[in-house]
Design a protein that fits this description.
Order of helices and strands: HHHH
CATH superfamily: lambda repressor-like DNA-binding domains
CATH architecture: Orthogonal Bundle
Shape: elongated
Number of helices: 4
Oligomer: single chain
CATH topology: 434 Repressor (Amino-terminal Domain)
Structural class: mainly alpha
Strand content: under 5%
Radius of gyration: 16 Å
Number of strands: 0
Number of domains: 1
Length: about 80
């Protein structure tokens, strides 16, 4: 019996061929990146909220994808990756 190894990239590429999956994936990417950068910077949601002048609950909703931030929201407070 031959077992083929399937990588995460292979699975992701396959799923992204589905237009509905791609749409949802792309809509959630910004929320994921915000949460990832916040965590990499060692910030709590409250600390990020204080930096950008909003409440912790709004940051939580944005990170979960339940709210969409304005382009004018100062998310630069998280800083660039790396």
């Amino acid at each position: 019996m031959i077992v083929k190894t399937i990588t995460h990239a292979d699975v992701k590429t396959g799923f992204l061929k589905d237009p509905e999956f791609r749409r949802v994936y792309e809509e959630s990417e910004a929320a994921y990146q915000l949460a990832r950068l916040r965590i990499l910077r060692g910030l709590t949601r409250q600390e990020l909220a204080d930096r950008v002048g909003m409440t912790q609950s709004i940051v939580a909703r944005v990170e979960s994808g339940r709210a969409n931030p304005s382009l004018r929201t100062p998310w630069h407070a998280v800083g660039p990756p790396g």
